[in-house]
Amino acid sequence: VIFLQKRCYAAARRSGSLAEPLSGLKPSKGAPLPPQDAQVSKLPNGLVIASLENYSPVSSVGVFVKAGSRYETVENQGVSHVLRLAANLHSSPFHINVDILYSAWFLTYFNTFLCIIAVFVCFLDAAVFDDPYLTFSLCLVLFSPAEVIEKLHEAAYKNTLSNSLYCPDFMVGHVSSQQLKSFVEDHFTTGRMALVGLGVNHSVLRQVGEGLLSARSGVGAPVAKSVYRGGELRVQNKDDLVHALIASEGAVTGSAEANAFSVLQRILGAGPHVKRGSSITSKLSQGIAKATTQPFDATAFNVSYSDSGLFGVYTIAQAASAGEVIKAAIAQVRGVAEGGVSEADITRAKNQVKAEYLMSMESSEGLLEEIGAQALTAGVYQAPDAVLKAIDAVTQNDVVKAAKKFVDGKKTMSASGHLINTPFVDEV
Protein backbone atom coordinates (compact mmCIF):
# COMPACT_ATOMS: atom_id res chain seq x y z
CA VAL A 1 0.00 0.00 0.00
CA ILE A 2 2.90 2.33 0.74
CA PHE A 3 4.20 1.55 -2.74
CA LEU A 4 0.88 2.58 -4.28
CA GLN A 5 0.82 5.80 -2.29
CA LYS A 6 4.23 6.64 -3.75
CA ARG A 7 2.94 5.81 -7.22
CA CYS A 8 -0.04 8.11 -6.71
CA TYR A 9 2.31 10.87 -5.55
CA ALA A 10 4.54 10.34 -8.55
CA ALA A 11 1.54 10.48 -10.90
CA ALA A 12 0.47 13.78 -9.37
CA ARG A 13 4.04 15.11 -9.68
CA ARG A 14 4.09 14.37 -13.41
CA SER A 15 0.76 16.10 -13.97
CA GLY A 16 1.67 19.37 -12.30
CA SER A 17 4.05 21.23 -10.02
CA LEU A 18 3.96 20.36 -6.32
CA ALA A 19 6.17 23.29 -5.31
CA GLU A 20 5.13 25.46 -2.36
CA PRO A 21 3.19 27.69 -2.43
CA LEU A 22 0.73 26.36 -5.00
CA SER A 23 0.07 29.79 -6.43
CA GLY A 24 0.26 28.61 -9.99
CA LEU A 25 -2.55 26.09 -9.62
CA LYS A 26 -6.12 27.11 -10.36
CA PRO A 27 -9.11 25.47 -8.70
CA SER A 28 -11.07 23.11 -10.89
CA LYS A 29 -14.28 24.55 -12.34
CA GLY A 30 -15.82 21.14 -12.86
CA ALA A 31 -18.93 20.17 -10.93
CA PRO A 32 -18.33 17.90 -7.91
CA LEU A 33 -18.94 14.25 -8.54
CA PRO A 34 -22.29 13.10 -7.12
CA PRO A 35 -22.11 10.70 -4.14
CA GLN A 36 -22.97 7.10 -4.98
CA ASP A 37 -24.77 4.47 -2.94
CA ALA A 38 -23.46 0.93 -2.62
CA GLN A 39 -24.91 -1.42 -5.23
CA VAL A 40 -25.52 -5.12 -4.63
CA SER A 41 -26.67 -7.64 -7.23
CA LYS A 42 -26.68 -11.40 -7.62
CA LEU A 43 -25.71 -13.28 -10.76
CA PRO A 44 -27.71 -16.32 -11.93
CA ASN A 45 -24.84 -18.56 -10.76
CA GLY A 46 -25.30 -17.31 -7.18
CA LEU A 47 -22.29 -14.95 -7.06
CA VAL A 48 -23.02 -11.76 -5.10
CA ILE A 49 -21.57 -8.56 -6.58
CA ALA A 50 -21.24 -5.53 -4.29
CA SER A 51 -19.59 -2.23 -5.19
CA LEU A 52 -19.26 1.36 -4.04
CA GLU A 53 -18.05 3.95 -6.52
CA ASN A 54 -16.25 6.47 -4.30
CA TYR A 55 -14.11 7.95 -7.11
CA SER A 56 -10.88 6.84 -5.49
CA PRO A 57 -7.85 6.83 -7.84
CA VAL A 58 -6.92 3.51 -6.23
CA SER A 59 -9.41 0.65 -6.43
CA SER A 60 -9.80 -2.19 -3.93
CA VAL A 61 -11.40 -5.48 -4.90
CA GLY A 62 -11.98 -8.48 -2.65
CA VAL A 63 -13.20 -12.02 -3.24
CA PHE A 64 -14.96 -13.31 -0.10
CA VAL A 65 -15.52 -17.08 0.05
CA LYS A 66 -17.43 -19.08 2.65
CA ALA A 67 -14.51 -21.42 3.17
CA GLY A 68 -13.09 -20.51 6.57
CA SER A 69 -12.02 -22.87 9.32
CA ARG A 70 -15.59 -23.48 10.50
CA TYR A 71 -16.18 -25.57 7.35
CA GLU A 72 -13.30 -27.97 8.05
CA THR A 73 -13.80 -31.53 9.25
CA VAL A 74 -11.84 -33.75 11.62
CA GLU A 75 -10.00 -35.24 8.65
CA ASN A 76 -8.89 -31.98 7.01
CA GLN A 77 -8.23 -29.65 9.96
CA GLY A 78 -5.96 -26.78 8.95
CA VAL A 79 -6.80 -26.94 5.26
CA SER A 80 -8.04 -23.31 5.08
CA HIS A 81 -4.84 -22.11 6.77
CA VAL A 82 -2.70 -24.09 4.31
CA LEU A 83 -4.69 -22.72 1.36
CA ARG A 84 -4.02 -19.16 2.44
CA LEU A 85 -0.29 -19.81 2.91
CA ALA A 86 -0.04 -21.63 -0.42
CA ALA A 87 -1.79 -18.90 -2.41
CA ASN A 88 1.43 -17.30 -3.74
CA LEU A 89 3.53 -20.45 -4.11
CA HIS A 90 2.86 -20.71 -7.84
CA SER A 91 5.24 -17.83 -8.57
CA SER A 92 8.61 -16.68 -7.29
CA PRO A 93 8.96 -13.55 -5.13
CA PHE A 94 10.97 -11.98 -7.96
CA HIS A 95 8.14 -12.56 -10.44
CA ILE A 96 5.60 -11.13 -7.99
CA ASN A 97 7.63 -7.99 -7.31
CA VAL A 98 8.37 -7.35 -10.98
CA ASP A 99 4.72 -7.78 -11.90
CA ILE A 100 3.58 -5.45 -9.12
CA LEU A 101 6.06 -2.79 -10.26
CA TYR A 102 4.80 -3.15 -13.81
CA SER A 103 1.06 -3.31 -13.21
CA ALA A 104 0.85 -1.36 -9.91
CA TRP A 105 -1.35 -3.66 -7.85
CA PHE A 106 -1.02 -5.32 -4.48
CA LEU A 107 -2.50 -8.74 -3.63
CA THR A 108 -2.96 -10.30 -0.18
CA TYR A 109 -4.90 -13.16 1.41
CA PHE A 110 -6.29 -13.83 4.89
CA ASN A 111 -8.79 -16.18 6.51
CA THR A 112 -11.35 -16.03 9.30
CA PHE A 113 -13.75 -18.50 10.91
CA LEU A 114 -16.25 -17.67 8.15
CA CYS A 115 -14.30 -17.05 5.00
CA ILE A 116 -11.08 -16.87 3.02
CA ILE A 117 -10.52 -13.46 1.44
CA ALA A 118 -8.32 -12.40 -1.47
CA VAL A 119 -7.89 -8.62 -1.74
CA PHE A 120 -6.01 -6.63 -4.34
CA VAL A 121 -5.45 -2.88 -4.63
CA CYS A 122 -4.76 -1.23 -7.98
CA PHE A 123 -4.98 2.01 -9.94
CA LEU A 124 -8.42 2.73 -11.33
CA ASP A 125 -8.14 1.22 -14.78
CA ALA A 126 -10.46 -1.47 -16.11
CA ALA A 127 -7.56 -2.92 -18.10
CA VAL A 128 -5.91 -4.08 -14.88
CA PHE A 129 -8.51 -6.85 -14.65
CA ASP A 130 -6.99 -8.32 -17.79
CA ASP A 131 -3.58 -8.63 -16.12
CA PRO A 132 -2.66 -12.32 -16.66
CA TYR A 133 -0.85 -12.65 -13.32
CA LEU A 134 -3.81 -11.24 -11.39
CA THR A 135 -6.29 -13.50 -13.13
CA PHE A 136 -4.06 -16.52 -12.53
CA SER A 137 -3.61 -15.59 -8.86
CA LEU A 138 -7.33 -15.39 -8.14
CA CYS A 139 -8.12 -18.50 -10.13
CA LEU A 140 -5.43 -20.41 -8.27
CA VAL A 141 -6.95 -19.47 -4.93
CA LEU A 142 -10.33 -20.57 -6.22
CA PHE A 143 -8.76 -23.86 -7.23
CA SER A 144 -6.13 -24.73 -5.68
CA PRO A 145 -3.21 -13.61 23.79
CA ALA A 146 -4.81 -15.78 20.80
CA GLU A 147 -4.47 -19.08 22.68
CA VAL A 148 -7.17 -18.22 25.20
CA ILE A 149 -9.64 -17.12 22.53
CA GLU A 150 -8.94 -20.25 20.48
CA LYS A 151 -9.46 -22.45 23.53
CA LEU A 152 -12.70 -20.64 24.33
CA HIS A 153 -14.16 -21.52 20.92
CA GLU A 154 -12.89 -25.08 21.19
CA ALA A 155 -14.64 -25.52 24.54
CA ALA A 156 -17.81 -23.60 23.59
CA TYR A 157 -18.86 -25.48 20.45
CA LYS A 158 -19.30 -29.09 19.41
CA ASN A 159 -18.50 -28.35 15.76
CA THR A 160 -17.73 -25.66 13.16
CA LEU A 161 -16.65 -22.71 15.35
CA SER A 162 -14.62 -25.07 17.55
CA ASN A 163 -12.10 -25.39 14.71
CA SER A 164 -8.91 -23.38 15.01
CA LEU A 165 -8.02 -20.64 12.54
CA TYR A 166 -4.60 -22.27 12.32
CA CYS A 167 -3.37 -25.66 11.24
CA PRO A 168 -2.96 -27.84 14.38
CA ASP A 169 0.49 -29.22 15.12
CA PHE A 170 -0.47 -32.82 14.38
CA MET A 171 -1.67 -31.84 10.88
CA VAL A 172 1.44 -29.90 9.86
CA GLY A 173 2.87 -31.73 6.87
CA HIS A 174 -0.17 -34.01 6.64
CA VAL A 175 -2.63 -31.88 4.65
CA SER A 176 -2.49 -33.54 1.25
CA SER A 177 -2.96 -31.97 -2.17
CA GLN A 178 -6.06 -34.12 -2.61
CA GLN A 179 -7.56 -32.68 0.59
CA LEU A 180 -6.85 -29.17 -0.69
CA LYS A 181 -8.45 -29.95 -4.02
CA SER A 182 -11.53 -31.53 -2.44
CA PHE A 183 -11.99 -28.60 -0.05
CA VAL A 184 -11.80 -26.12 -2.92
CA GLU A 185 -14.25 -28.12 -5.05
CA ASP A 186 -16.75 -28.29 -2.18
CA HIS A 187 -16.54 -24.70 -0.98
CA PHE A 188 -15.03 -22.37 -3.60
CA THR A 189 -18.19 -22.05 -5.67
CA THR A 190 -20.05 -18.95 -6.83
CA GLY A 191 -22.99 -19.69 -4.54
CA ARG A 192 -20.63 -19.19 -1.59
CA MET A 193 -18.77 -16.12 -2.90
CA ALA A 194 -19.06 -12.35 -2.91
CA LEU A 195 -17.03 -10.13 -5.23
CA VAL A 196 -16.68 -6.68 -3.66
CA GLY A 197 -15.11 -3.52 -5.04
CA LEU A 198 -14.39 0.05 -3.96
CA GLY A 199 -13.69 2.72 -6.55
CA VAL A 200 -15.02 0.37 -9.25
CA ASN A 201 -18.01 0.75 -11.56
CA HIS A 202 -20.62 -1.90 -10.76
CA SER A 203 -21.05 -2.97 -14.37
CA VAL A 204 -17.30 -3.52 -14.70
CA LEU A 205 -17.28 -5.62 -11.56
CA ARG A 206 -20.18 -7.72 -12.87
CA GLN A 207 -18.21 -8.43 -16.03
CA VAL A 208 -15.27 -9.56 -13.91
CA GLY A 209 -17.53 -11.89 -11.93
CA GLU A 210 -19.20 -13.30 -15.02
CA GLY A 211 -15.88 -14.01 -16.69
CA LEU A 212 -13.32 -14.74 -14.00
CA LEU A 213 -15.43 -16.81 -11.61
CA SER A 214 -17.91 -18.49 -13.97
CA ALA A 215 -15.92 -21.75 -13.91
CA ARG A 216 -16.75 -22.24 -10.23
CA SER A 217 -20.57 -22.23 -10.50
CA GLY A 218 -22.60 -24.11 -7.91
CA VAL A 219 -23.96 -23.96 -4.38
CA GLY A 220 -21.21 -26.05 -2.79
CA ALA A 221 -21.34 -28.45 0.12
CA PRO A 222 -24.14 -28.13 2.74
CA VAL A 223 -23.36 -25.93 5.73
CA ALA A 224 -23.56 -27.31 9.27
CA LYS A 225 -25.14 -25.16 12.00
CA SER A 226 -22.99 -24.32 15.01
CA VAL A 227 -23.95 -26.13 18.23
CA TYR A 228 -23.12 -24.34 21.48
CA ARG A 229 -22.40 -26.65 24.41
CA GLY A 230 -20.32 -24.78 27.01
CA GLY A 231 -17.33 -26.26 28.80
CA GLU A 232 -13.84 -25.50 30.02
CA LEU A 233 -10.26 -25.77 28.81
CA ARG A 234 -7.29 -24.88 31.03
CA VAL A 235 -3.66 -24.55 29.94
CA GLN A 236 -1.45 -24.94 33.01
CA ASN A 237 2.04 -23.44 32.78
CA LYS A 238 4.46 -21.38 34.85
CA ASP A 239 3.39 -18.01 33.51
CA ASP A 240 2.64 -15.78 36.50
CA LEU A 241 0.15 -13.76 34.43
CA VAL A 242 -3.16 -15.62 34.20
CA HIS A 243 -5.33 -14.99 31.14
CA ALA A 244 -8.93 -16.05 31.72
CA LEU A 245 -11.96 -15.72 29.47
CA ILE A 246 -15.48 -16.62 30.65
CA ALA A 247 -18.40 -16.39 28.23
CA SER A 248 -21.97 -17.46 27.53
CA GLU A 249 -23.65 -17.76 24.15
CA GLY A 250 -24.23 -14.28 22.72
CA ALA A 251 -26.09 -12.97 19.69
CA VAL A 252 -26.21 -13.65 15.95
CA THR A 253 -24.55 -10.98 13.82
CA GLY A 254 -26.85 -8.34 12.38
CA SER A 255 -29.60 -8.89 14.96
CA ALA A 256 -31.08 -6.33 17.37
CA GLU A 257 -29.74 -8.46 20.22
CA ALA A 258 -26.23 -8.13 18.79
CA ASN A 259 -26.55 -4.34 19.03
CA ALA A 260 -27.58 -4.66 22.68
CA PHE A 261 -24.51 -6.80 23.41
CA SER A 262 -22.29 -4.22 21.65
CA VAL A 263 -23.67 -1.49 23.90
CA LEU A 264 -23.25 -3.70 26.98
CA GLN A 265 -19.63 -4.35 26.00
CA ARG A 266 -18.87 -0.61 26.00
CA ILE A 267 -20.65 -0.10 29.33
CA LEU A 268 -18.48 -2.77 30.94
CA GLY A 269 -15.33 -1.70 29.11
CA ALA A 270 -13.97 -2.62 25.68
CA GLY A 271 -10.41 -1.42 26.18
CA PRO A 272 -8.71 2.00 25.98
CA HIS A 273 -10.25 4.57 23.65
CA VAL A 274 -6.84 6.04 22.81
CA LYS A 275 -3.55 4.33 22.07
CA ARG A 276 -1.71 3.35 25.26
CA GLY A 277 -4.56 4.77 27.30
CA SER A 278 -6.29 3.19 30.30
CA SER A 279 -9.77 1.79 30.93
CA ILE A 280 -10.01 3.10 34.47
CA THR A 281 -13.46 4.62 33.82
CA SER A 282 -15.08 1.31 32.78
CA LYS A 283 -17.39 -0.58 35.12
CA LEU A 284 -15.10 -3.61 35.08
CA SER A 285 -12.03 -1.61 36.07
CA GLN A 286 -13.85 0.35 38.75
CA GLY A 287 -15.43 -2.75 40.26
CA ILE A 288 -12.28 -4.88 40.24
CA ALA A 289 -10.19 -2.04 41.70
CA LYS A 290 -12.36 -2.25 44.82
CA ALA A 291 -11.64 -5.98 45.18
CA THR A 292 -7.86 -6.04 44.79
CA THR A 293 -4.83 -3.81 45.00
CA GLN A 294 -2.87 -6.01 42.57
CA PRO A 295 -2.39 -4.95 38.93
CA PHE A 296 -4.93 -6.32 36.45
CA ASP A 297 -6.59 -5.72 33.11
CA ALA A 298 -10.20 -6.54 32.24
CA THR A 299 -12.35 -6.04 29.15
CA ALA A 300 -15.70 -7.28 27.91
CA PHE A 301 -15.45 -9.87 25.13
CA ASN A 302 -18.04 -9.92 22.32
CA VAL A 303 -18.09 -11.74 18.98
CA SER A 304 -21.02 -12.48 16.66
CA TYR A 305 -21.26 -15.05 13.89
CA SER A 306 -23.93 -15.96 11.33
CA ASP A 307 -25.57 -18.52 13.62
CA SER A 308 -24.16 -17.90 17.11
CA GLY A 309 -22.06 -15.58 19.24
CA LEU A 310 -20.08 -15.33 22.47
CA PHE A 311 -20.17 -12.69 25.18
CA GLY A 312 -18.15 -12.55 28.38
CA VAL A 313 -15.27 -11.03 30.32
CA TYR A 314 -11.55 -11.34 29.65
CA THR A 315 -9.21 -10.77 32.60
CA ILE A 316 -5.43 -10.68 32.99
CA ALA A 317 -4.09 -10.82 36.54
CA GLN A 318 -1.29 -12.07 38.73
CA ALA A 319 -1.65 -15.75 39.61
CA ALA A 320 -2.19 -14.94 43.29
CA SER A 321 -5.09 -12.56 42.62
CA ALA A 322 -6.66 -14.18 39.54
CA GLY A 323 -9.61 -15.60 41.45
CA GLU A 324 -10.72 -12.35 43.06
CA VAL A 325 -10.28 -10.44 39.79
CA ILE A 326 -12.44 -12.94 37.85
CA LYS A 327 -15.20 -12.98 40.47
CA ALA A 328 -15.22 -9.19 40.72
CA ALA A 329 -15.57 -8.95 36.91
CA ILE A 330 -18.52 -11.36 36.88
CA ALA A 331 -20.11 -9.36 39.69
CA GLN A 332 -20.09 -6.23 37.51
CA VAL A 333 -22.05 -7.98 34.76
CA ARG A 334 -24.45 -9.32 37.38
CA GLY A 335 -24.95 -5.77 38.63
CA VAL A 336 -26.03 -4.63 35.15
CA ALA A 337 -28.36 -7.65 34.89
CA GLU A 338 -30.02 -6.48 38.10
CA GLY A 339 -30.66 -3.02 36.62
CA GLY A 340 -27.52 -1.25 37.77
CA VAL A 341 -27.09 0.83 34.64
CA SER A 342 -28.22 4.41 33.99
CA GLU A 343 -29.55 6.13 30.91
CA ALA A 344 -26.35 8.19 30.85
CA ASP A 345 -24.34 4.93 30.69
CA ILE A 346 -26.50 3.72 27.80
CA THR A 347 -26.17 6.98 25.86
CA ARG A 348 -22.39 7.14 26.32
CA ALA A 349 -21.98 3.50 25.27
CA LYS A 350 -24.16 3.92 22.17
CA ASN A 351 -22.11 6.94 21.11
CA GLN A 352 -18.94 4.88 21.50
CA VAL A 353 -20.37 2.03 19.41
CA LYS A 354 -21.41 4.43 16.65
CA ALA A 355 -18.09 6.27 16.67
CA GLU A 356 -16.06 3.04 16.49
CA TYR A 357 -18.29 1.74 13.69
CA LEU A 358 -17.90 4.90 11.61
CA MET A 359 -14.15 5.14 12.23
CA SER A 360 -13.68 1.49 11.24
CA MET A 361 -14.93 2.39 7.77
CA GLU A 362 -12.75 5.45 7.28
CA SER A 363 -10.12 3.24 5.65
CA SER A 364 -10.73 1.42 2.39
CA GLU A 365 -9.75 -1.86 4.07
CA GLY A 366 -12.38 -1.49 6.79
CA LEU A 367 -15.09 -0.42 4.36
CA LEU A 368 -14.30 -3.27 1.99
CA GLU A 369 -14.46 -5.79 4.84
CA GLU A 370 -17.79 -4.40 6.11
CA ILE A 371 -19.45 -4.50 2.67
CA GLY A 372 -17.98 -7.93 1.96
CA ALA A 373 -19.09 -9.45 5.27
CA GLN A 374 -22.67 -8.22 4.79
CA ALA A 375 -22.82 -9.25 1.14
CA LEU A 376 -21.49 -12.73 1.90
CA THR A 377 -23.73 -13.49 4.90
CA ALA A 378 -26.96 -11.66 3.95
CA GLY A 379 -26.66 -10.87 0.25
CA VAL A 380 -27.42 -7.19 0.95
CA TYR A 381 -25.64 -4.12 2.31
CA GLN A 382 -27.06 -2.03 5.13
CA ALA A 383 -26.04 1.61 4.79
CA PRO A 384 -24.36 3.35 7.75
CA ASP A 385 -27.44 5.49 8.45
CA ALA A 386 -29.53 2.38 8.99
CA VAL A 387 -26.86 0.84 11.24
CA LEU A 388 -26.73 3.99 13.38
CA LYS A 389 -30.52 4.03 13.76
CA ALA A 390 -30.47 0.40 14.90
CA ILE A 391 -27.86 1.24 17.55
CA ASP A 392 -29.89 4.25 18.71
CA ALA A 393 -32.91 1.96 19.10
CA VAL A 394 -31.21 -0.06 21.87
CA THR A 395 -32.96 0.56 25.19
CA GLN A 396 -31.97 0.14 28.82
CA ASN A 397 -34.19 -2.95 29.00
CA ASP A 398 -32.38 -4.47 25.99
CA VAL A 399 -29.01 -4.05 27.72
CA VAL A 400 -30.32 -5.54 30.99
CA LYS A 401 -31.71 -8.55 29.06
CA ALA A 402 -28.34 -9.05 27.36
CA ALA A 403 -26.55 -9.02 30.71
CA LYS A 404 -29.11 -11.50 32.12
CA LYS A 405 -28.48 -13.81 29.18
CA PHE A 406 -24.80 -13.93 30.13
CA VAL A 407 -25.46 -14.37 33.85
CA ASP A 408 -28.09 -17.11 33.40
CA GLY A 409 -26.52 -18.81 30.40
CA LYS A 410 -24.37 -21.91 30.31
CA LYS A 411 -20.79 -20.77 30.77
CA THR A 412 -17.64 -21.52 28.82
CA MET A 413 -14.19 -20.82 30.25
CA SER A 414 -10.63 -20.89 28.96
CA ALA A 415 -7.61 -20.02 31.09
CA SER A 416 -3.87 -20.02 30.65
CA GLY A 417 -1.07 -19.52 33.19
CA HIS A 418 -0.21 -20.64 36.72
CA LEU A 419 -3.80 -21.52 37.63
CA ILE A 420 -3.36 -22.35 41.32
CA ASN A 421 -5.83 -19.59 42.35
CA THR A 422 -7.97 -19.57 39.22
CA PRO A 423 -11.51 -20.87 39.87
CA PHE A 424 -13.16 -23.45 37.66
CA VAL A 425 -16.13 -22.47 35.53
CA ASP A 426 -18.64 -24.01 37.95
CA GLU A 427 -17.22 -21.87 40.77
CA VAL A 428 -17.89 -18.45 39.24
UniProtKB/TrEMBL annotation:
<dbReference type="InterPro" id="IPR007863">
    <property type="entry name" value="Peptidase_M16_C"/>
</dbReference>
<keyword id="KW-0812">Transmembrane</keyword>
<dbReference type="GO" id="GO:0005739">
    <property type="term" value="C:mitochondrion"/>
</dbReference>
<dbReference type="GO" id="GO:0046872">
    <property type="term" value="F:metal ion binding"/>
</dbReference>
<dbReference type="Pfam" id="PF05193">
    <property type="entry name" value="Peptidase_M16_C"/>
</dbReference>
<keyword id="KW-0472">Membrane</keyword>
<feature type="domain" description="Peptidase M16 C-terminal">
    <location>
        <begin position="175"/>
        <end position="352"/>
    </location>
</feature>
<keyword id="KW-1133">Transmembrane helix</keyword>
<feature type="transmembrane region" description="Helical">
    <location>
        <begin position="100"/>
        <end position="127"/>
    </location>
</feature>
<dbReference type="InterPro" id="IPR011249">
    <property type="entry name" value="Metalloenz_LuxS/M16"/>
</dbReference>
<dbReference type="InterPro" id="IPR011765">
    <property type="entry name" value="Pept_M16_N"/>
</dbReference>
<dbReference type="Pfam" id="PF00675">
    <property type="entry name" value="Peptidase_M16"/>
</dbReference>
<dbReference type="InterPro" id="IPR050361">
    <property type="entry name" value="MPP/UQCRC_Complex"/>
</dbReference>
<protein>
    <submittedName>
        <fullName>Ubiquinol-cytochrome c reductase core protein 2a</fullName>
    </submittedName>
</protein>
<feature type="domain" description="Peptidase M16 N-terminal">
    <location>
        <begin position="49"/>
        <end position="86"/>
    </location>
</feature>
